[in-house]
């Protein structure tokens, strides 16, 4: 046992205060006058009674409360097993602390983030004299400190961060903070060694996401928030609502909807189908509970719950599914899922097949239509049109009325009048997805749809025929640009890295035209690019969407790619269930006028458009329902924000111990012992108040007699 602030034990001198108060509180002797004193002889021995302290129990309680308070202020701690070994010579150290939602997990009623703060203090105290320390958190808005010889600054910053409400509901892998940590270490170190001490939970997105180094001669040393690498505490069982969805149930009623949710029971070890736990799930509509159901969830597994509801009134309604009757779940924040519910919420998509085939594998839109039907998110209404049928629809008085997205799959360029009508519809907000193939002619597309395309087409290329690349017969895909609005929140490789392409279209570069590249080939050539045209959006895939030019449709990432891309092309995004974001994910608001966003807390925030005719709303840190007011002449937009279900996965991963070359110092785990003392002081003060009230009452009654 040791004290972090031993000088505060001087507060024990305050124990004299209650003693002095009790001594001064004795009653003074009263003089009583007698009528005659003749029977009192002078010189008789005078006998007096010495008064002793009263209310000794009250005095003892007050002395005990003051003594315990002084001891608590001195902050006693006890040391346990070593958490991590630090470099044994003066060096530059960066503390990288996990600030994601999973750090809210309580183990033996101790939050992982509170344990991370204690672990950071242990590392700082163990650093050799002359070291410098900085601070980085995976939370983009968390504290960041440059390297400083004042080691106490990091402890203070972490304490203020926790007091400010950390962790938030965001999902940030711990390795996302490594680039910032490496940047802080790039300065002049004066020849000293460098290290990153990563503090978090031993999960796939925590310590399990880290590499062994953050740069040349910069090891990454993992530090568990609780326990030590060789003695991790058991992960407590907890529940989460992983996903929700809904679909119209017109077989029951024209306005009926079927709502479903997946409840997961997180527990270490294998699935135990016979170990069932009853979980209550409530459906809320407009803030009021409208239905409740029980579901039996196996240990380590999941179970599906389903509701059927008939909507009343027009327009989308804010809805939620929530786990209720939970007795102090160890990981709060992942038991509610928010969404907007409406009787009609379908995205109307027109697939124009430019190269139909009786062989499904070579039909131009077979894989695309299959992917759209398998998309788990928003409900899609898919129509197929031939190229001449598309041109007929474009020549109607209201071209493509009610259509949200058009896909031109290896289609010859439309006639000039039909192409002009298509351009007008895109300006009004229609989404357009163009995929190439044998029937696409660069000159015709550039002449009729050149202003719509993100970049003009140059020529089709057979991979391996270009100079310098004769050894390659296929072209692979580079890692996806996850910063693209259509791909935010997806996995690192998107399940497309193995895709191979035999033919592709080269594009004419144009520095004056703003485009966003979502996918590229390993050669650097664009594979999927997008462009904004008026209020609409256009996407161009430079290879085919069937098996003729590429095996892209066979990759597992093809379905989520198509789902997210189609949702992105729906520029209006007025659908209810289609507008669902992760916490912290920005929301793109189309329009050239300022909008007002009403958050779940009722706060009204302004969203101002940029020069491209859209506003980017980034303040999506609170899960719940959001409404966007765009003016009296335009309907409001609505979207929901949910926590990332990946943060609920607390399955521990094996984390290798730190690899240190040279001398090392053990940083022992320190466990605070002052928190129980503070609670004991509060209990003593409560007893003291009750006792003082009873004594005062008794004395008042005695005087009244």
Any overview of this molecule?
- This protein has 705 residues and is α+β, with helices and mostly antiparallel strands.
- Helices cover 20% and strands 31% of the residues.
- The chain is built from eleven helices and 35 strands.
- The strands form ten sheets. It has a seven-stranded mixed sheet. A five-stranded mixed sheet has the order 7-6-3-8-9, sandwiched between helices.
- Helix 7 packs across helix 8 (416-428).
- The longest helix is centred in the C-terminal third of the chain and has 31 residues, at 674-704.
- The protein is elongated.
- The model has no long low-confidence stretch (mean pLDDT 84).
Please give the structural blueprint.
Elements lengths: L1 E2 L12 H9 L31 H18 L2 E12 L3 E7 L8 E2 L2 E2 H15 L5 E6 L7 E4 L3 H12 L14 H7 L8 E8 L19 E5 L13 E11 L7 E11 L5 E14 L2 E12 L2 E9 L6 E8 L11 E6 L4 E8 L12 H9 L4 E7 L1 H8 L10 E5 L6 H13 L2 E5 L6 H8 L7 E6 L12 E2 L23 E2 L1 E5 L8 E5 L5 E8 L2 E6 L16 H12 L10 E3 L4 E4 L4 E4 L5 E4 L6 E4 L6 E6 L7 E6 L21 E9 L1 H31 L1
Parallel strand pairs: 3-6, 3-8, 8-9, 17-18, 17-19, 19-20, 20-27, 28-34
Antiparallel strand pairs: 1-2, 2-35, 4-5, 6-7, 10-11, 11-14, 12-13, 12-15, 15-16, 21-24, 22-23, 25-26, 26-27, 29-32, 30-31, 30-33, 33-34
Helix pairs in contact: 2-11, 3-4, 6-10, 7-8
The structure class reads alpha+beta
| Count of alpha/pi helices | 11
Helix content: 10-25%
- How many individual β-strands? 35
Q: Give the overall pLDDT as a whole number.
A: 84
Low-confidence stretches: none
- Terminal CA distance reads 55 Å
Largest sheet, strands/sense/barrel: 7 strands, mixed
Strands of the largest sheet, in order across it?
18-17-19-20-27-26-25
> Which overall shape is indicated by the principal axes computed on the Cα atoms?
elongated
Radius of gyration: 35 Å
How large a portion of the residues is in β-strands, by DSSP E?
25-35%
Keywords: Membrane, Transmembrane, Transmembrane helix
Domain Aerotolerance regulator N-terminal: 1-76
Protein name: BatA domain-containing protein
Pfam families: BatA, VWA_2
């Amino acid at each position: 046992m040791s004290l972090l602030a031993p000088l505060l034990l001087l507060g024990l001198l305050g124990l004299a205060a209650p003693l002095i108060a009790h001594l001064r509180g004795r009653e003074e002797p009263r003089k009583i006058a007698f009528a005659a004193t003749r029977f009192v002889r002078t010189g008789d021995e005078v006998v007096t009674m010495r008064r002793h302290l009263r209310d000794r129990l009250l005095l003892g309680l007050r002395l005990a409360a003051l003594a315990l308070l002084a001891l608590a202020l001195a902050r006693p701690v006890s040391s346990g097993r070593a958490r991590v070994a630090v470099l044994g010579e003066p060096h530059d150290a960066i503390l990288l602390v996990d600030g994601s939602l999973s750090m809210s997990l309580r183990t033996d009623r101790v939050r992982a983030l509170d344990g991370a703060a204690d672990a950071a203090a242990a590392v700082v105290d163990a650093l050799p004299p002359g070291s410098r320390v900085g601070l980085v958190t995976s939370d983009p808005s968390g504290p960041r400190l440059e390297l400083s010889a004042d080691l106490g600054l990091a402890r203070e910053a972490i304490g203020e961060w926790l007091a400010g409400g950390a962790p938030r509901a965001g999902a940030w892998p711990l390795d996302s903070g490594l680039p910032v940590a490496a940047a802080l270490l790039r300065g002049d170190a004066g020849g000293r060694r460098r290290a990153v001490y990563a503090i978090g939970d031993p999960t796939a997105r925590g310590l399990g996401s880290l590499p062994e180094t953050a740069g040349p001669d910069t090891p990454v040393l993992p530090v568990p928030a609780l326990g030590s690498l060789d003695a991790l505490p058991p992960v407590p069982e907890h529940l989460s609502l992983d996903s929700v969805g809904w679909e119209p149930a017109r077989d029951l009623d024209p306005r009926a909807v079927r709502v479903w949710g997946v409840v997961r029971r997180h527990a270490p070890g294998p699935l135990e189908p016979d170990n069932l736990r009853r979980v209550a799930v409530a459906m809320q509509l407009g803030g009021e509970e409208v239905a409740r159901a029980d579901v039996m969830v196996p240990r380590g597994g999941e179970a599906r719950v389903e509701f059927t509801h008939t909507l009343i009134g027009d327009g989308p309604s804010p809805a939620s599914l929530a786990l209720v009757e939970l007795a102090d779940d160890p990981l709060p924040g992942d038991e509610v899922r928010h969404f907007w519910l409406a009787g009609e919420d379908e995205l109307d998509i027109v697939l124009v097949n430019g190269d139909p085939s009786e062989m499904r594998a070579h039909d131009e839109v077979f894989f695309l239509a299959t992917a759209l039907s398998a998309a788990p998110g928003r409900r899609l209404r898919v129509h197929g049109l031939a190229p001449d049928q598309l041109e007929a629809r474009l020549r109607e008085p209201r071209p493509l009325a009610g259509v949200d997205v058009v896909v031109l799959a290896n289609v010859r360029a439309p006639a000039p009048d039909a192409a002009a009508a298509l351009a007008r519809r895109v300006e009004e907000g229609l989404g357009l997805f163009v995929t190439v193939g044998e029937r696409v002619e660069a000159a015709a597309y550039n002449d009729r749809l050149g202003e719509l395309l993100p970049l003009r087409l140059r020529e089709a290329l057979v991979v391996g025929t270009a100079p310098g690349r004769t050894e390659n017969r296929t072209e692979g895909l580079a890692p996806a640009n996850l910063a693209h609005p259509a791909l935010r929140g997806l996995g690192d490789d998107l399940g497309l890295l193995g895709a191979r392409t035999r033919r592709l279209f080269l594009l004419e570069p144009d520095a004056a035209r703003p485009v966003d590249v979502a996918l590229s080939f390993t050669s650097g050539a664009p594979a999927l690019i997008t462009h904004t045209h008026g209020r609409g959006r256009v996407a161009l895939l430079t290879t085919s969407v069937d098996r003729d030019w590429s095996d892209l449709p066979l990759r597992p990432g093809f379905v989520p790619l198509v789902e997210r891309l189609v949702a992105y092309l729906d520029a209006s995004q007025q659908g209810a269930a289609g507008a669902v974001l992760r916490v912290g994910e920005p929301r793109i608001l189309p329009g050239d006028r300022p909008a007002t966003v009403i958050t779940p807390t009722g706060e009204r925030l302004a969203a101002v458009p940029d020069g491209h005719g859209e506003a980017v709303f980034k303040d999506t840190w609170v899960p719940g329902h959001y409404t966007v007011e765009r003016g009296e002449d335009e309907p409001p937009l609505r979207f929901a924000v949910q926590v990332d279900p990946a943060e609920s996965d607390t399955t521990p991963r094996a984390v290798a111990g730190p690899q240190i070359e040279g001398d090392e110092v053990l940083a022992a785990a320190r466990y605070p012992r002052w928190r129980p003392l503070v609670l004991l002081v509060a209990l003593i003060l409560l007893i003291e108040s009750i006792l003082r009230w009873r004594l005062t009452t008794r004395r008042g009654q005695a005087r009244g007699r």
